[in-house]
Amino acid sequence: MWTRLGRSKRTPSLAINYVVLALLAVFTLYPMLLVFLDSFKSPDETLSNPLGLPREWQFVNFVKVWTEAGFSRAIPNSLLVATVSAVGVTLLGALGGYSLGRLKPRGGDALTVYFLAGGSLPAQMFLVPLFFLWRKLGLVDNLWGLALIYMGTGAPFAAYLLRAFFISLPRDFEDAAKVDGATQLDIIRHVVLPLARPGFLTVLLLNWMGGWNEFFFANIFLHRQEVQTVALRYVVFSSEYFTDWAMTSAMGVLMMLPVMALFLITQETFIKGMTQGGLKF
Amino acid sequence: MEVGLGRKVATKVPGRVPQRRRRSSGSLLFEKEILPWLFLLPVVGLNVLVMLGPSGGSLYYAFTDWRGLGHANWIGLDNFLKIFRDQFVSIAFRNNLKWMALALFIPPALAVVVAALLAEVARGQRLLRAVFFLPLVVSTAVGARAWQGIYHPLFGLVAWLAQHGVKFLDIRLLGNSDLALYLVFLASLWKSWGFPMVLFLAAMQQVPADQYEAAIMDGANRFQQLQHITIPSIRPTLILILVFTLIGSMLVFDFIFIMTRGGPSNSTEVLAYRMYLYAFDRFQAGYAAAIGVMLTFWSGIVTLGFLLLRRVGWEV
User: Fold this and answer.
1) Does A53 touch chain B (CB under 8 A)?
2) Is A122's Cβ below 8 Å from some Cβ in B?
3) Domain annotation covers residue A220
4) Partner-chain contact B31 A148, CB within 8 Å
5) A48 and A184 within one domain
6) For the residues of chain A, what is the DSSP string, one character each?
7) Does the beta-carbon distance from A195 to B5 stay under 8 Å?
8) Of the N and C termini of chain B, which has fewer Cβ atoms inside 10 Å?
9) Domains held by chain B: number
């Protein structure tokens, strides 16, 4: 009986697909939805109404996050770190990637392998000496010091990605320019950079998002509240005041907004870039 | 998009490139030998400062009694021997192994099944793919706290269930040492399973539809199709994901740190968290470096094993 009710072999029904996918969509979206809805509730309502919509949508949590929880400092801090490190990674990666992909120096292949392997070196390998080195250099509790770490760890892999990108660009324009007697720098400025723009944007986007979300290094290298980034401020504040779940949620929403907006606008670039990033071999 | 860019450049570029006909051999040497390395200098230099140099530091300090400050005395293999006697390390290691067992099986299985289901669906495919990918762009900090909210007896889903008659849930779930590790793992699963799913989906979309049609004609059911067509098509990706999992499971940190800090009663203790404590809380920098070296040793072994198997002709 049961088997006869099942779908026929010729025209597979997609009902099972949609049921399973819908359940997983709920599993995926519910934590974000919980944070979103609770950010508009009063602290009392987060307790009395843990699942439903806010009875009265209020924005006071967001104001409190800005004025009382230190986000007025943390947001500019994160904007600085994310932007500086993303621009830095893209710049260093572009220079290195162009050199490896187009100028092909002697020893470049070995360096490419290192960039690939070095990029997957666990942070635990260099974390401890790096911390004490940074402290000696006055770079602990310093946003530029943190940005340098993101750049030093992120740029080799960016160079690796952009190397592949430069190799894939057609050489015709370059050759034409060379015949005309243009120098290497001229060629880069006028031919290669405009063509490579999509590759740069991917690297920029992913590293900006990484810098905005990053917790591991921020947690170790930033201690004073004035320099904390959003991810760190969020975790520290919500450890101290976890019971103010409404405010914790409002902070979470402010953290999710920029990355989700970027993701929704640039979905294809994003998914392609991140999956390439994971497939290093 | 690329075509459009190409066209723009083609109309703009050639006229603007400055004309220089003669070049000395000195400038040729500069362009061939020196310029490429000048371009590489910033990325290599910064990487040496941040990663390579300190990695060398770890290799040295792992053999010393360094406290992070002051002088470091050479103590030979003492730190490494201590790792094997350290009861916290052994608790942590067992938890990492549990985590690995779960991570090797659950996320890939979920990702394969969902990718297979999603590949068959035309309407809503892109939207659902974006939904499942979304947790990957959300900070681990927010994801971890959101799940703490869900598990909390006062704020989220568990609280609601407890209020509506599911009485056994009226406890601090994360305070239960039998459950905590699995609950943290679920939060981490939520965050990361979309990644292999998107990779599998991309691989499955390369499989020609007539292979499935032929299989259906031969009377293959869904499971047989999965086994004989889908899985082989994603095999290289799957193996890569398993390699990442073998490495990543030993390095778990963020979710543990934010949600439980190793507790309750060491039930979520993991190696990276132990190392963090030794380095920055207990002033045993040399010992922490030794643990870091061991963790890196493990990822090196896994990577080498993978490359070796591939070299001897395994289709991995």
Assistant:
1) no
2) yes
3) yes
4) no
5) no
6) -HHHHSPPSSS---HHHHHHHHHHHHHHHHHHHHHHHHTTS-HHHHHH-SSS--SS---HHHHHHHHTSSHHHHHHHHHHHHHHHHHHHHHHHHHHHHIIIII--TTHHHHHHHHHHHHTS-GGGTHHHHHHHHHHTT-TT-HHHHHHHHHHHHHHHHHHHHHHHHHHS-SHHHHHHHHTT--HHHHIIIIIHHHHHHHHHHHHHHHHHHHHH--HHHHHH--SGGG--HHHHHHHHHHHSTT-HHHHHHHHHHHHHHHHHHHHHTHHHHHHHHHHHH---
7) yes
8) N
9) 1
Q: Is the dihedral of CA B292, B294, B296, B298 positive or negative?
A: negative
Determine, for residues A50 and B21 on separate chains, whether the beta-carbon distance falls below 8 Å. Answer: no
State whether A32 and A160 are in the same domain.
no
10-residue mean pLDDT profile of chain A (281 residues): values are 41 82 96 94 88 90 92 96 97 94 88 85 95 96 97 94 85 78 79 82 92 96 95 93 87 95 88 66 35
Q: Are residues A23 and A121 in the same domain?
A: no
Which positions in chain A touch B55 (Cβ < 8 Å)? 121, 125-126, 129
Say if B163 falls within a structural domain. yes
Write down the pLDDT at residue B6. 36
Q: Which residues contact A59 (CB under 8 A, 6 or more apart)?
A: A40
DSSP-derived letter for residue A11 is: S
Chain A nearest C-alpha distance from B173 (Å): 16
Range B204-215 average pLDDT: 85
Give the H or E element holding residue A182: none
* Contact criterion met (CB < 8 Å) for B8 and A98: no
Interchain contact A6–B (C-beta under 8 A): no
Q: Looking at the domain assignment, is residue A7 inside a domain?
A: no
Q: Do A105 and B68 touch (CB under 8 A)?
A: no
Q: Do B61 and A129 touch (CB under 8 A)?
A: yes
Same domain? A29 vs A134: no
Q: Are residues A125 and A241 in the same domain?
A: yes
Residues A240 and A109 in one domain: yes
Q: Please report whether residue A65 resides in a domain.
A: no
pLDDT at B117: 92
The answer as to whether A2 is a domain residue is: no
Same domain, A197 and A96: yes
Domain extent, residue A195, equals 72-278
Contact B131 A29 (CB under 8 A): yes
Domain count, chain A: 2
Q: Which residue of B lies nearest to A176 if distances are taken between CA atoms?
A: B14
| CATH number for the domain harbouring residue B85 | 1.10.3720.10
Whether A150 and A252 map to the same domain: the answer is yes
Asked if the structure places residue B183 within a domain, the reply is yes
Q: Note the pTM of the prediction, 2 decimals.
A: 0.89
Residue of A nearest to B110 (CA): A24
> The domain that contains A225 carries what CATH number?
1.10.3720.10
CB-based contact, A263 to chain B, within 8 Å: yes
Pick from B39, B279, B296: CB nearest A99: B39
Look up the domain containing B218 and give its range: 80-311
ipTM: 0.89
Least CB–CB distance from A256: residue in B118, B136, B142: B142
